[in-house]
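tool=predict chain=A
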Amino acid sequence: MGIKQISVFLENNTGRLAEVTKCLADAGINLRAISIADTAEFGILRVIVDKQDEAINALLDSGFTTVENDVLVVEIKDMPGSLAKLMLLFREADVNIEYLYASLEGREGSAAVIFKLSNFGTGLKIIKENGIKLLEQF
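tool=predict ok
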C-alpha cells in the first residue's frame, strides 16, 4: 500500500527543469505533486503523476535518469498542529522521515502529505492504528 513516486536526477543547469516538465507535458502527463531539492551540482526532482508508466517511459526515452519509490500519502487537517501530531507518532516509533512534501491541491480544509520513511511498514502501521487517512490515489 502506498503511491509510486518518480525521482528524476538532473544536472543543476538552467533549463533542465523546463526540459523535464515539457517532456511530461508532451506525453500528456499531469503532475499531482512536485518537489525539488538541489545541491550546487545536481537536483532531485520528485513527482507524483497521473500516469506512472507513461511518465517513466517518456522520461527514459528523453534520456533522464529516474527511480521509482514507494511513498505514503496521508490526508491531515489544514490547521496548526496537525503535522506536529503525526511527527510525534513517528518519533515515538523511532521511524525516520527521509523527506516529505505536501500539497493542498483539491482538498478544502485538508492537506496531502507525502512521506518517504526509513521503515515503510512501521510507518504504514502507525498510520492505520491511529486512524489517519491514507490516500491510495493522488
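The mean pLDDT is 91. Residues 36 and 45 are 4 Å apart (CA to CA).
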